[in-house]
Design brief:
The protein is an alpha/beta fold. The chain has two domains: 37-151, Nucleotide-binding domain of ferredoxin-NADP reductase (FNR) module (Rossmann fold, 3-Layer(aba) Sandwich), CATH 3.40.50.80; 156-180 and 190-218, no CATH class. 34% of the residues lie in helices and 20% in strands. It contains eight helices and nine strands. The strands form two sheets. It has a seven-stranded mixed beta sheet with strand order 4-3-2-1-5-6-9, sandwiched between helices. A two-stranded antiparallel sheet has the order 7-8. It is globular. The two termini are 34 Å apart. It binds FE2/S2 (inorganic) cluster (FES). FE2/S2 (inorganic) cluster binds next to loops.
Length: 218
C-alpha cells in the first residue's frame, strides 16, 4: 500500500490515519483491469498514479507484452517505483517538470517520441495520473487510433454504486467509476465534465481545511 501525505498532521488525525493501523479499508472495488496480449504497450504514470500503474504494468508484462514505462512528476522526489518498474519494463523513461531527473517536461514528450518510432510504437496505452495528464495522453493517441485505457479518480463516497458521487460520462453514458471502472476507454471519456466535478467542492474543502487548522492551533 502506498500513500501520499498532503494534509497537515491535524488533518491526518481527522482522517484517523494513526500509527500502524488504518481505521477502514474497503475493496476490491470496481471491475478487474483488462489484461490482454497486445504485443507492445506503453504504461504512463504521473505522480502517485504510478503506484496504481505498477501492478497493471507488471500483469501486462507477465503475459508477454513488451512494456515501455513512462513516469513523470513535478521533480525527482515525486518519481516513484522506477527501479521496480524497470525489473520488467523494456525501458523506463522518466520526465520531471523541473528537469531534476530524466527529461525536462511532461510524459507526453516521451510518448510522442515513442509513437513516432515504428519500432517502438505501442499498440495500447495505459495511463494513470492527474486528469490533465490522462487527457493529454488520450489526445495524443486519438489520431493514431491507439487503444488507450485511463484509470479515473473522481470523488468517491460510498464506493458501492449507490451515492452517485463518482459518476463520469463515457461514450455519452453515465457510468460510476467505483463499479463500472475505474478503467475506461480514454477516447470515450468526457474529461471536461470530470474536471468540473473534481473541482466542484473546492471551496468547501478549503473552508474545512482552514477550520481544521484553526481548531488544531487553539
Ligand atoms: S462512490 Fe458512490 S456511486 Fe461510486
Amino acid at each position: 500500500m502506498m500513500a501520499k501525505a498532503l494534509a497537515t498532521e491535524a488533518e491526518l488525525n481527522f482522517l484517523a490515519v494513526k500509527g500502524p493501523a488504518l481505521r477502514d479499508v474497503a475493496g476490491p472495488l470496481g471491475r478487474p483491469t483488462e489484461i490482454e496480449k497486445w504485443g507492445r504497450v506503453a504504461c504512463v504514470g504521473g505522480g502517485v498514479g504510478t503506484a496504481v500503474l505498477f501492478p497493471l504494468a507488471k500483469a501486462l508484462a507477465e503475459i508477454g507484452n513488451e512494456v515501455t514505462t513512462i513516469i513523470g512528476g513535478r521533480a525527482a522526489s515525486y518519481i516513484i517505483l522506477a527501479d521496480e518498474l524497470g525489473a520488467f519494463s523494456k525501458e523506463v523513461l522518466i520526465t520531471t517538470e523541473d528537469g531534476s531527473l530524466g527529461r525536462k517536461g511532461f510524459v507526453t514528450a516521451e510518448l510522442a517520441d515513442l509513437i513516432a518510432d515504428p519500432a517502438r510504437a505501442p499498440l495500447a496505452v495505459f495511463a494513470v495520473g492527474p486528469v490533465p495528464m490522462m487527457k493529454a495522453v488520450v489526445e495524443q493517441t486519438r489520431p493514431h487510433g491507439i487503444k488507450t485505457l485511463v484509470s479515473l479518480n473522481p470523488i468517491m463516497i460510498d464506493g458501492t454504486g449507490m451515492c452517485g458521487g463518482c459518476r463520469v460520462i463515457v461514450g455519452g453514458e453515465t457510468k460510476f467509476a467505483c463499479v463500472d471502472g475505474p478503467e475506461f476507454d480514454g477516447h470515450q471519456v468526457d474529461f471536461a465534465s470530470l474536471t468540473d466535478r473534481l473541482t466542484m467542492y473546492r471551496d468547501v474543502e478549503e473552508k474545512c481545511r482552514l477550520e481544521n487548522r484553526q481548531g488544531s492551533a487553539q
